[in-house]
Design a protein that fits this description.
Elements: E1 10-15, H1 21-29, E2 36-43, H2 49-56, E3 60-63, H3 66-70, H4 74-81, E4 86-89, H5 98-103, E5 108-112, H6 127-135, E6 140-147, E7 157-164, H7 171-197
Parallel strand pairs: 1-2, 1-4, 2-3, 4-5
Antiparallel strand pairs: 5-6, 6-7
């Protein structure tokens, strides 16, 4: 069969709930990748900015509701029909249900804007994280990329990057510093993880 590892590109689905700045960086990074393709963008909000980004890049999108996500295998069936290999969470605010975690074992990645296990868990997302970091006068923050399990921000950590803070920085300035790290590292870490774990 020659030396081919895969006969088709590795297909990724990005799940996002908001504007999609991380999703956009990921889409741009893999736009002309030799073996990884962003094939689908999934959102739980019909007005999410990430859907416009998907449209601009000619990527298929899917809007889901809680019933289809939690109460059935509809989303799993759709992902399988689209031959999705990995799920990438990029600002997706819903907990991933057990049946999807089990359908994609060790194939769901998430990014979180703190150095987990600090400032993780239910309700800890976006500005809530950075507000807490500021209130507690942390001198270091950063971001974490981890595997997804059935709990918020609880899966095995794949990668972390840190940034130094000072007491003059506002929560919004902390957020900007952390987002820079997310944009820099998330696409690269996805690429390394997927290529490493997709070897036949």
């Amino acid at each position: 069969m020659g030396g081919d590892i895969t006969l088709r590109p590795i297909r990724l689905a990005i799940f996002a709930s908001g504007g999609g700045s991380n999703a956009e960086k990921i889409i741009q990074y893999f736009a002309i990748h030799a073996s990884i393709k962003i094939s689908l963008v999934v959102s739980n909000k019909s007005d999410a900015g990430v859907l416009k980004i998907a449209e601009e890049h000619l990527i298929k999108s899917l809007i889901i509701n809680k019933n289809s996500f939690w109460g059935s295998n509809e989303v799993i069936d759709y992902l399988r029909d689209e031959k999705i290999d990995y799920i990438i969470l990029a600002g997706f605010l819903w907990l991933v249900p057990k049946q999807i975690v089990e359908a994609f074992p060790n194939k769901i990645l998430n990014i979180h804007p703190s150095l987990l296990p600090k400032y993780g868990g239910k309700g800890m997302y976006g500005h809530f994280v950075h507000d807490a970091v500021k209130v507690n006068n942390e001198t270091v923050s950063g971001m974490t990329i981890h595997l997804v399990n059935e709990k918020f921000d609880d899966g095995d950590i794949i990668f972390q990057a840190k940034c130094s803070l000072n007491e003059e920085m506002s929560a919004s300035e902390i957020a900007f510093r952390v987002l820079e790290l997310e944009h820099k590292y998330y696409p690269i870490v996805i690429e390394k993880y997927v290529l490493k774990h997709n070897v036949a």
